[in-house]
TrEMBL record:
Name of the protein: Acyl-CoA dehydrogenase, short-chain specific
Keyword Cell membrane found: no
Annotated ranges, domain Acyl-CoA dehydrogenase/oxidase N-terminal: 6-118
CDD domains assigned to the protein according to its UniProt record, in alphabetical order: SCAD_SBCAD (cd01158)
Domain Acyl-CoA oxidase/dehydrogenase middle intervals: 122-217
PANTHER family: ACYL-COA DEHYDROGENASE, ISOVALERYL-COA DEHYDROGENASE, MITOCHONDRIAL-RELATED
Gene source species: Sporomusa termitida
Cofactor dependency: FAD
Domain of life: Bacteria
GO MF, any single term: short-chain fatty acyl-CoA dehydrogenase activity
Length: 379
């Protein structure tokens, strides 16, 4: 059993950390304040090869493993997890299903520019009445010969509006229920495909979240992803990998909150000594560090299993559930250690606390993760 990243993975970790310190950290507070999506940072990640880490060379990728990509998301998320989740959404929820289920023509047209970071990807499953109940899709695609006619809408879509490529799910045969859902590839700018409300969120305000609207969008047959009726399987298997990405985001947030708390506890003096000299604070730090380490092993192990081609849905759900709960607990404790300053926007821990909350909610609430874990255990 090896508990170390490989030399290559450590080099990548160092490279992303330096990029995070130099390029991502400086504007993080302002992007949060102004709800500003930093396309330039995404472009820079493309130039660094982060969008292609775990994709085959034939599509312009580095032929690396999923764990390397997960380490990159974790490192980015230490500095600004809005940047981490922008990458993770494009890679896990758009690039991956095209690689896994796309035709060669779809890979040439959509995957290659995504892998190069020239385009950004998004994933549209959620609707007002199809959240946890993802099978209750109201968006409809009707087969019209050479194209499908798509009508409906999606909400809470990460990267929505900014992305050029969208993996979208729609009902093609309502009578078949879960087996009547089909996946499609849509392009920004297709006639009838527009953007609605932009969400104003509690956290991850540097990540863009939009409503997608489809009014008689003609989607060519060539843009159907996978077979008719295969959409639910595509969505669920895509989310399995995506959940490791959210877990890495949560891990990065938790690590950042812990690092800030340690530094502050050593610097902040009350009653003539650093507050870290009080056991009440030191024991909090001990608990926080233990939780972060435990989360890291679950997250890395889920990625390792995926890389081995072994079943990992349960482990991905465990990693996502645990790491996001840890992110919530550790950021809350970090704010507590900072006291009044922690509640102020002058310090980053209040942003980390707000951002941590989403990791318990998206790509399946933690209640959904428990369903996935329990059904795997009881199968
Ligand atoms: N991989 C492949 N196939 C799968 C699968 C998986 N992980 N999970 C289920 N399936 C297949 C099953 O095999 C089954 O097919 P068969 O009948 O042929 O065996 C079919 O799908 C239905 O399976 P279930 O009956 O188990 O599915 P369910 O309806 O009970 O699933 C649920 C329930 C787990 C709650 C599921 O609906 C779910 O995960 N919901 C949450 C959806 C979600 O995560 N949404 C997040 C939106 S995306 C987002 O947040 C992105 C963003 O912007 C960042």
């Amino acid at each position: 059993m090896h508990f170390e990243l490989t030399e290559e993975q450590q080099m990548l970790q160092k490279m992303v950390r330096e990029f995070g310190e130099k390029e991502v950290a400086p504007g993080a507070a302002a992007r949060d304040e102004n709800e500003e999506f930093a396309r330039g940072l995404y472009d820079a990640m493309g130039d660094l090869g982060l969008t292609g880490l775990c994709f085959p060379e034939q599509y312009g990728g580095a032929d690396g493993d999923y764990l390397s990509y997960i380490v990159a998301v974790e490192e980015l998320s230490r500095f600004d997890d809005s940047v981490g989740i922008t990458l993770a959404t494009s890679v896990s929820l758009c690039q991956w299903p095209i690689l896994a289920y796309g035709t060669e023509a779809q890979k040439q047209k959509y995957l290659i520019p995504l892998v190069a970071g020239k385009t950004l990807g998004a994933f549209g499953l959620t609707e007002p009445n199809a959240g946890t109940d993802a099978a209750a899709q109201q968006t409809v695609a009707v087969d019209n010969g050479d194209h499908y006619l798509l009508n409906g809408s999606k909400i809470f879509i990460t990267n929505g509006g900014e992305a050029e490529t969208y993996v979208i799910f729609a009902m093609t045969d309502r009578a078949k229920g879960v087996k009547g859902i089909t996946a499609f590839l849509l392009e920004k700018g297709m006639p009838g495909f527009t953007f609605g409300k932009k969400e104003h969120k509690l956290g991850i305000r540097g990540s863009i979240t939009m409503e997608l609207i489809f009014q008689d969008v003609k989607v060519p047959q060539a843009n159907r992803l996978g077979q008719e009726g295969e959409g639910f399987k595509i969505a669920m298997s895509t989310l399995d990998g995506g959940r490791i990405g959210v877990a890495a985001q949560a891990l990065g947030i938790a690590q950042a909150a812990f690092d800030h708390a340690v530094k502050y506890a050593k610097e902040r003096t009350q009653f003539g000594k650093p507050i870290a000299a009080n056991q009440a604070v030191a024991f909090m730090l001990a608990d926080m560090a233990t939780k972060v380490e435990a989360a890291r092993y679950l997250v890395y192990r889920a990625a390792f299993l995926k890389d081995q081609g072994r079943p990992f849905a349960k482990e991905a759900a465990m990693a996502k559930m645990y790491a996001s709960d840890v992110a919530m607990a550790v950021t809350t404790d970090a704010v507590q250690i900072f006291g009044g300053y922690g509640y102020s926007r002058e310090y980053p821990v209040e942003r980390l606390l707000r951002n941590a909350k989403i990791t318990q909610i998206y790509e399946g609430t933690n209640q959904v993760q428990r369903i996935v874990i329990a059904s795997a255990l009881l199968r």
